[in-house]
Design goal:
The chain is about 75% helix and about 0% strand. It is an all-alpha fold. The protein has one domain. The protein starts with a helix and ends in a 12-residue tail after the last helix.
Length: about 70
């Protein structure tokens, strides 16, 4: 375990049990989400490569435009 994680856990131990459980749930959900994304990307590399190739072809053909965050 890293020093930073040790410090975080030490601080978490000072919180009430309900807050500890809430933070633990958030961490576990985040780890589960990461695992799901990893599995999804690993199972579809061909589809992702095709999408990337299509996007690059459209860019090279001048069919794209720069994203303006103000218009989102």
């Amino acid at each position: 375990m890293t020093e930073l994680l040790d410090r975080a856990i030490a601080k978490l131990k000072t919180l009430p049990a309900s807050e500890q459980d809430a933070i633990a749930s958030m961490i576990l959900e985040e780890l589960q989400d990461d695992l799901k994304w990893d599995r999804a990307f690993a199972s579809s590399p061909d589809a992702l490569a095709k999408l990337a190739a299509t996007a690059m072809a459209e860019y090279r053909a001048g069919k794209t435009q720069e994203l303006d965050p103000e218009t989102l």
